[in-house]
């Protein structure tokens, strides 16, 4: 397999921090790699280096001459007033039929395709950006936290897209379930070194834990041996009869001291608020309606959440999950109906509208000490701050100088150090790395209070949730199944939609006659569909080639000054247009356009 990008002996610093320290890595064609590392390790910097947007201080980055990178950027590339289709055509130069076909893979149609793209939610805009990437025919995708703010349905669509994308990908994500579903190898950046593991994220994490445990045992053995040798030397070096033995032991001790052992990353330890368990109903909703004066999001909501439950709020983006959470914490008043919390409830909230209102005059340490349980020690505060990546001098930073992500982590730390017996969490895993999300999940599982939360991280949801509440089509109701069951149901819906879109020529299974096709007919139909699919792909390649030829000839015609040559170019263009029209008509017939 061809090496698309090779990083050789790369060094890179950011201030006093060493991000790359003689790092080496190779990205090869057709391999999808999950890229992991602690927050601040330098993952985004490495992506910019691979893209050519930043330089290494030493070493080299070698690009294959045929490398075509598709990079999912976080910034907004859309122009005011343009539709998703307009953007795709402008960005790729592809014709509308091709843009519409690729957009269909991400369920972009109707108003989502033809309405103002800036009016779409972040998740739908991400779908538009992904369609744009595909239209450029990249052979290496680079995706930086692609699942942030994507609902489950869009995550599954993205997984299916990556599964069918037969080329290379480098994916930065803290979502273990997503990496497991999409990547066959794992790349870790830690302490300036890149380590490629030839396996999925779960296998890699297990291997890394085993390796660290081995290092701890080796360290313990070395320390014990050092102590034993030092005692012998101190006891015997002054004695003439044993002085030579002491010198020999000193040489052994010196060798042990020069052995370099891997030092573990700081361990993430998170504790939830210490509360007494309670019984009965935590909150009851009766005939509740939620939303805004000009937008009734959901109504006729009747449900109860019991003390000790960890209720996951699920549903597609735009259905009203955050509206439901805001109503529960009374940041929004109900439009109708009744909501009542149980006696002795203290609610702790983690959401954007909370962590953007922190007192900017305080330092991180001052805020955490002010917010914490009276029984909390200074060591507890420092340990929680360290777990959320505020270590050493960072703990004395003023809140006014912190980024949005840093403020979010401060809010999480203060919430977990507090006394709330109900936690309402909107996307608690955002801004946290894999290890910290895992530690937070463990803490919430041990928590004696009640948790009501929503998250786009499926591994986190499956670990934490004890019950599921679905927000869908203007209703909020208990989902009678586990979170894994809910994921399976959405997976089936997405797969069925893809089957319907991809069906071309020939009848689908279970047609209106209701008669079951024989095995022979099923095989013939499958064979016909595969044949049709191959013809469609061949036509798409032909159309793309003809489009390129036509574009090139038009550019030549614009600059041609010789009349005879201009006539020849014009005739060539007309011939290509005829051929192009025939190919597009054939494509439309085969795809049942």
From TrEMBL:
Superkingdom in the source lineage: Bacteria
Pfam families the UniProt entry points to: ABC_tran, ABC_tran_CTD, ABC_tran_Xtn
SMART domains membership: AAA
Gene3D superfamilies on file: P-loop containing nucleotide triphosphate hydrolases, Valyl-tRNA synthetase, C-terminal domain
Composition bias type Basic and acidic residues, residue spans: 530-541
Keyword rRNA processing: no
Name used for this protein in its record: Putative ABC transporter ATP-binding protein YheS
Organism expressing this protein natively: Allorhodopirellula solitaria
Gene designation: yheS
């Amino acid at each position: 397999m061809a090496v698309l990008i090779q990083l050789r002996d790369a060094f890179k610093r950011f201030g006093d921090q060493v991000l790359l320290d003689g790092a080496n890595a190779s990205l090869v064609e057709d391999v999808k790699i999950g890229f992991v590392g602690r927050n601040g390790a330098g993952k985004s910097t490495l992506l910019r280096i691979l893209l050519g947007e930043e330089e290494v201080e030493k070493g080299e980055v070698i690009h294959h001459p045929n490398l075509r990178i598709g990079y999912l950027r976080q910034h907004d590339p859309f122009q005011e007033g343009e539709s998703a289709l307009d953007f795709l055509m402008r960005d790729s130069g592809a014709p509308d039929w091709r843009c519409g076909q690729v957009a269909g893979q991400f369920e972009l149609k109707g108003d989502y395709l033809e309405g103002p793209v800036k009016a779409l939610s972040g998740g739908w805009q991400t779908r538009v950006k992904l369609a744009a990437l595909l239209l450029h025919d990249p052979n290496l995708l680079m995706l930086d936290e692609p699942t942030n703010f994507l609902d489950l349905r869009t995550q599954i669509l993205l997984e299916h897209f990556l599964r069918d994308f037969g080329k290379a990908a480098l994916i930065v994500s803290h979502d273990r379930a997503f990496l497991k579903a999409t990547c066959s190898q794992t790349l870790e950046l830690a302490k300036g070194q890149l380590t490629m593991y030839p396996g999925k994220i779960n296998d890699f994490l297990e291997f890394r834990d085993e390796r660290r445990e081995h290092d701890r045992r080796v360290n313990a053995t070395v320390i014990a041996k050092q102590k034993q040798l030092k005692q012998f030397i101190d006891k015997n070096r002054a004695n003439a009869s044993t002085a030579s033995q002491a010198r020999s032991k000193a040489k052994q001790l010196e060798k042990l001291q020069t052995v370099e052992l891997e030092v573990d990353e700081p361990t993430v330890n998170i504790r939830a608020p210490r509360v007494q368990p309670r019984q009965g109903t935590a909150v009851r909703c009766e005939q509740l309606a939620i939303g805004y004066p000009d937008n009734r999001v959901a109504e006729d909501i009747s449900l109860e959440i019991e003390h000790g439950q960890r209720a996951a709020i699920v549903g597609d983006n735009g259905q009203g999950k955050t509206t439901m959470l805001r109503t529960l914490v009374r940041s929004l008043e109900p439009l109708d109906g009744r909501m009542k919390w149980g006696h002795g409830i203290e609610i702790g909230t983690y959401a954007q509208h909370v962590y953007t209102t922190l007192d900017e005059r305080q330092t991180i340490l001052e805020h955490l000490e002010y917010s914490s349980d009276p029984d909390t020690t200074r060591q507890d505060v420092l340990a929680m701050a360290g777990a959320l990546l505020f270590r050493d001098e960072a703990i004395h930073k003023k809140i006014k100088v912190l980024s949005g992500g840093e403020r979010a982590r401060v809010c999480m730390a203060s919430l977990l150090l507090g006394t709330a017996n109900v936690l309402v969490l909107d996307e608690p895993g955002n801004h946290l790395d894999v290890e910290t999300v895992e530690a937070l999940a463990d803490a919430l599982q041990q928590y004696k209070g009640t948790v009501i939360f929503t998250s786009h991280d499926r591994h986190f949801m499956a670990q934490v949730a004890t019950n599921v509440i679905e927000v869908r089509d203007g209703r909020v109701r208990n989902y009678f199944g586990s979170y894994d069951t809910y994921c399976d149901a959405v997976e089936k819906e997405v797969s069925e939609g893809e089957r319907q879109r991809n069906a071309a020529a020939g009848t689908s299974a279970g047609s209106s006659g209701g008669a079951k096709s024989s095995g022979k007919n099923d095989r013939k139909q499958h064979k016909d569909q595969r044949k049709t699919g191959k013809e469609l792909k061949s036509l798409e390649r032909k159309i793309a080639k003809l489009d390129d030829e036509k574009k090139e000839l038009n550019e030549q015609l614009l600059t041609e000054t010789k009349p005879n040559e201009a006539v020849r170019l014009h005739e060539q263009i007309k011939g290509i247009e005829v051929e192009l029209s025939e190919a597009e008509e054939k494509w439309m017939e085969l795809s049942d356009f």
